[in-house]
Amino acid sequence: MDAREYVQVKLVMGRKMGRKIRTTLPTLEKNLLPKWPSRTAVKERDGREKAKQAHYFNRRHGARPLPALQPGDVVSSKLDYEKSWSLPAVISSESTTPRSFVIRTQHGAELRRNRRHLQPGPVSQQHTGMSQGQTHTLTEPPC
Question: pTM of the prediction?
Fold first, then answer.
């Protein structure tokens, strides 16, 4: 074996994943090549782990799905710093942002509110028989 062959063998046999192998025992060249995991298996395992983490997070924090809201529904609104659901409104439409709605207050103002700032309110007698284009009369939300 000449010097050039010795260097090539040393490079192939003497390194595994970029690190110098400390053993002097001989090994096969195929054992020194990196093995990549299956992409589908990694995605499957990752999906299972994410679902398990979501399950335990939701169980710990009492998360639950909120009831769906449709345009025309009567809601009560509040912001984070407010203590009571004091602003009655009607949902005009869904907003372009996720989980957000455009609401119309009893004073005629149109506001965009996130779903967590909206609570389904009581339905008044006048609201149930009205069509979409008519104005809505709102009832006071329960305190």
Answer: 0.52
